[in-house]
Amino acid sequence: MDVPQYIEANRERFFADLKEWLAIPSISGDPAHHGDVRRSAEWFAAHLRDIGFPTVEVWETAGLPAVFAEWPAADPAAPSVVVYGHHDVQPVEPLGEWETDPFTPLEKGDRLIGRGTSDDKGQVFFHTLGVQANMAASGAPAPPVTVKLLVEGEEESGSLHFPELLRTHRDRLACDAIVISDTSMWSEDVPSMCTGMRGLTEAEVSLYGPESDLHSGSFGGAVPNPLHAMAALLAALHDADGRVTLPGFYDDVLPLTGEERELFARLPFDEAEWLRTAGGSRAPYGEKGFTTLERVWARPTAEINGMWGGHTGPGGKTIVPREAHAKISFRLVAGQDPAKVQESFRTWVQRNTPPGIRADIVTGGAVRACFSPIGSASVQAAKRAMEKAFGQEVLFTREGGSGPEADLADILEAPLVFVGLGLDSDRIHAPNEKAEMPLLLKGAEAAAYLWDEFATALRTA
Amino acid sequence: MDVPQYIEANRERFFADLKEWLAIPSISGDPAHHGDVRRSAEWFAAHLRDIGFPTVEVWETAGLPAVFAEWPAADPAAPSVVVYGHHDVQPVEPLGEWETDPFTPLEKGDRLIGRGTSDDKGQVFFHTLGVQANMAASGAPAPPVTVKLLVEGEEESGSLHFPELLRTHRDRLACDAIVISDTSMWSEDVPSMCTGMRGLTEAEVSLYGPESDLHSGSFGGAVPNPLHAMAALLAALHDADGRVTLPGFYDDVLPLTGEERELFARLPFDEAEWLRTAGGSRAPYGEKGFTTLERVWARPTAEINGMWGGHTGPGGKTIVPREAHAKISFRLVAGQDPAKVQESFRTWVQRNTPPGIRADIVTGGAVRACFSPIGSASVQAAKRAMEKAFGQEVLFTREGGSGPEADLADILEAPLVFVGLGLDSDRIHAPNEKAEMPLLLKGAEAAAYLWDEFATALRTA
Ligand SMILES: [Zn+2]
Ligand SMILES: [Zn+2]
Q: Which residues lie closer than 8 Å to B182 by C-beta, 6 or more apart?
């Protein structure tokens, strides 16, 4: 029995089991559902035991529990791989917009509609079928690499206790690669793998002028206005080419390779359609010399997220306001150190604050970008597995935002490989989240091939 | 009996009467006190009748009443002068900071403490003593010019119905000059006259980008951010010399004369002290080539009064916000047309809005500056009267803000002359408002001389 045959033979059981798991409303962001998150962990642990995982444990955190399971390879010298996903889900409001109860999964043609079908229970679940299919095809009692599943319960509420969990269990999570199954492909017709996610750091700037709001009749035009200073400061954060002006900002940026740009350019990108998804934005904008995809995936940014000061209520109030505030965040790419960007921003703000204005800067949040070079052994191995499952070339993408992936790479000190089969059209985090059932099965197939590819590639790497 | 003798002989009666008027809490901004504003008008009208004004009327408006009184000159060819002031007062909160009940005036040395003592009942009241002193000194039964008092009841709440009142009674208010007694002098030791007030116009700008806030991970760096556009727009509103960049903004500005700059420069100005009064501002700032006093008195400005958009609450929120807003006001000087500035600003905003952003501009408020050249006959006549009262040279100032004065000049088509004897230290609009009693008597003396000076100057002018 080969992998596709095994999957075909077990598809009904697979979806029946998945639906049981999906029925547990494991909303980590809602304290009323924390008991359900725990039930979800226990259900999944029981299921992993049922299908034969020799080691299955529910790992407690200071918050909600994760599930750990390990199926060791027969050969003690075989590589180890951690598979990361999460079993908690997003809230479901507004309920009225759902076609079905979010926790009563509904099959509609090829689609399975319900909270968690794509993000992320469906994607985690295809690994259970994948590892079984691998062994069914090889006839061996164990996979050719040691497979360690780590499925957390707090991803949708910020993975607050995840780094601590990784540090606590660092030894047991030792591995040669980390497979992330919580991302999406370009489209159903264009299978692809993500190779990186941007990092993030944030800052809040406050500029102070007079001790109280001043009457602009008496003082306007003769004392510094903190709102003018803020406008000038933030306007100076980009040059005319849309480049960030912080000294040294681009020094450590790992440039895009010609190969990656070429592969990005082969993605069938419809800019007008993309602008529609971008809240009906009327025009693209950004750093000169880069395409829209390169800008969101592989270039760092400085973005003003909020700005306020002075009179913001109805009507006029002719004041020179006492203060101005802004929240700024920086998306970072491979090579950049969040702490260095924070420091550079602090210095830059102080240097660009005009006489008579005092600046306060509070920085926070420091997530490094994560990145897996296309040419690396683990990415190439996963690409072969994906191509075997899809029967066509697999392209590459990146993602603009970041989750707990950087922590995994940093703490476990292993390369990340993104094998995610969600779609942008899956409406994750929104009403009527769905997964394409054929894609979940493709995921199982790719996962089955992955262990053979890794067994070869990582051993010789 | 000369003017000083008459004033000395009547000072006790003068302050006793003034205190009666001050005891009426004529707070126009507080509907609970609107009955008191009416009582204040009636009290003052009765007083004017008592001291012999042949015509005294309470003029109704759609809001609160004004008092009109006329004492015609004996000679029908004599000039007419309107004296403007107001009998309504500011609110008195916080009450706990007053040394006395705000409406139970307290004498403390030379000071009279109470709401309205300086702004503006005290200043209006010195004209009653002034006109009596004039006639006592001349022995004539009428002043040498026709004196028309116009004392409104809504100045502290925006003079909403004042233009309408002026238009309704335009014929009866016909005059050759308008004396404004609602301003202040440089200081007790440096008597001065105001020669102009800046005008004002306002605008609110809204910039719109995507239809909803976007996740900056997915879209940041590739779509226009309205907050960036707002910062760039407002930063571009001034050049490096602090000049407003709107095309044509300075074209119509009446330049300061060398004489006026010289006279301003003779005022004993302590910049460090001024910065302290400017809310502890840490440094002066403004248009290059002008002193602080010139900047606040005689140069136009563009001031950001408020700015907001995106996430302004606690914590971070990594969004590209859908919109940004700002409130801007322009202080205008003699020569500038508020409507022209509004139009120029609209055009400029639209031209400087980047692709992908839509701008909405709402303009409002259009108060022209008012200005009386130092060399004009009426200003010189008032200067002579002031110098006779003070026995020393009178210098010139201007004021940065504006009240209903421009409407008076526009609708009555007569020049303004500012004979105001308040002091910056009078704490008008604040707890413990006070007037220096010797200054109120000097005001009466100057007012007494004024009618003789005007009789000569305006007849021959
Ligand atoms: Zn997810
Ligand atoms: Zn006043």
A: B84, B85, B86, B119, B120, B123, B155, B403, B420, B422
Topology (CATH) of A199-253+300-367:
Alpha-Beta Plaits (3.30.70)
Ligand nearest to the CA of A180: 1
Q: Are strands B106-108 and B111-113 parallel, antiparallel or unpaired?
A: antiparallel
Distance from CA of B144 to the nearest CA of A (A): 37
Distance of residue B114 Cα from the nearest chain A Cα, in angstroms = 23
Alpha carbon distance B125, A405 (integer Å): 78
Write down the domain spans for chain A. Answer: 3-197+369-460, 199-253+300-367
From the CA of B118, the nearest ligand is 2
d(CA A117, CA A136): 25
DSSP code for A117 = S
Q: What are phi and psi of B429, to 5 degrees?
A: 70, 5
A228 with B211: Cβ contact below 8 A: no
Query: Residue B294: closest CA among chain A residues belongs to which residue?
Result: A222
Say how many Å lie between the CA of residue A182 and the centre of ligand 1: 5
pTM of the complete model: 0.89
Per-residue pLDDT of B35-47, as tens digits, reads 999 999 999 999 9
CA-angle at B67, arms to B65 and B69, nearest 5° = 160
Report the C-alpha gap between A68 and A172 in whole angstroms. 10
Q: Which fold has domain A3-197+369-460?
A: Aminopeptidase (3.40.630)
The alpha carbon of B65 and the centre of ligand 2 are apart by a number of angstroms equal to 16
DSSP A89: B
pLDDT value for B314 = 87
Residue-wise pLDDT for A97-150, tens only, equals: 999 999 999 999 999 999 999 999 999 999 999 999 999 999 999 999 999 999
